Amino acid sequence: MFAAVFFCFVFFAFFALYYTSPELYTFFLQERKGTKMWVFMRYRGSYMAAVICVIIFCMFLVYRTPVDEVSEGMCACKDCVRQQTHSFWFNELYDLSIQPLLTRKNYVLSEDIFKYWKGLQKNKKEANYTEVVEQLFSLFPDKTQYSDASPKRCRTCAVIGNSGNLKGSHYGHLIDLHDFVIRINMGPTKGYENDVGSKTTHRFLYPESAMDVDNSTYLVLSPFKILDMEWLISAFTTKNITRTYKKVRPSVNANRQKVMILHPAFIKYVHETWLLKRAKYPSTGFLAIIFALHVCDQVSTFGFGADQYGNWYHYFEKTSHNIRTGAHSGSFEFDTMMQLYLENKIQVYRGR
Ligand SMILES: *[C@@H]1O[C@H](CO)[C@@H](O)[C@H](O)[C@H]1NC(C)=O
Ligand SMILES: *[C@@H]1O[C@H](CO)[C@@H](O)[C@H](O)[C@H]1NC(C)=O
Ligand SMILES: *[C@@H]1O[C@H](CO)[C@@H](O)[C@H](O)[C@H]1NC(C)=O
Predict the structure, then answer these.
(1) pTM of the model
(2) Could you read off the pLDDT of 187-233 as tens digits, one per residue?
(3) How far is the CA of 252 from the centre of ligand 3 (A)?
(4) Ligand closest in space to the Cα of 230
(5) Residue whose CA is closest, atom 8 of ligand 3?
(6) Which of 2, 43, 118, 261 has its CA 20 to 30 A from that of 176?
(7) Closest Cα to atom 13, ligand 3: which residue?
(8) Where are the alpha helices (DSSP H) in the chain?
């Protein structure tokens, strides 16, 4: 169809040219003696061709492929995250050109990103970023992950927050049905399978929130400073970094082949674009949600926000203290999540 329209335009252009300016037309013929020219010569002077073209063009305008059909091909799920919607808000913020994960190809940071990132958590002794990244990729895999979106793929993802509203929710089975189950920081599964499931494909953490993961789980580091990258290296080698701004685990058990590092530019994007810098930095949970929007076709969230009584606490902690006033404002992130839910971009399971 597009080819037909294209040829019509070519025909049409030359007819127009012929009748308005014969000299220019002859000039063109001398300049370009392609096969299209030959076709044209056969029909030269034929008004029929022009008429047919106009008719085809009009039919094309009337029956052209609806926009929805194009975007339905984005993935094999019923609704796809990437699908264009009429949400101005979402289209404005969602930027697939920003790569969530660090690789050797994309690690160089522009000046403003580097400045932003270094401003997040200051350190007295600064290591050389380039050298640290080189060391990272000599230890951990360096490949572009999850760029396999296709009309045949329906990748469903569950992002599991650590909210107390998971207690007694019986979401476990539902959560385990997802292709990716992304967990945050120290949120355990052992002993809570009924409510939080037992599968973990990815765990997002930073040094101060680290825990062991089993060898089939991807460990995704959210680096808020260069020292976090150094800690990751140390945790798999010398184990001699034991403090950042507070005491941290010197090592973690994890499969070295399954370590990934969030890109500082992605952290900046989430912080400034999605959260409008309304928190000191984005939480690991919120980073995981936006990560899922980039690599998954359908996203469900569990265990975010307060419980039914308005209490904010972790499902695995006995005492319920208020975490709404922490370094990252849980409530503002939750508002953004609810907006994503209203725009039909994520599913939100509120628990109890
Ligand atoms: C960091 O290390 C690289 C390579 O070793 C070097 O070219 C660069 O100048 C260093 N940067 C700073 C700020 O020291
Ligand atoms: C992963 O763990 C399983 C069981 O603990 C073990 O059999 C397997 O060899 C491990 N794989 C790697 C790559 O360490
Ligand atoms: C850790 O060990 C390495 C190599 O042994 C050394 O270069 C580095 O300075 C040590 N770091 C700390 C914080 O002790």
Answers:
(1) 0.79
(2) 999 999 999 999 999 999 999 999 999 999 999 999 999 999 999 99
(3) 17
(4) 3
(5) 240
(6) 261
(7) 241
(8) 2-20, 22-31, 35-42, 47-63, 67-72, 88-93, 111-120, 129-139, 172-176, 193-196, 226-236, 264-269, 284-295, 330-342
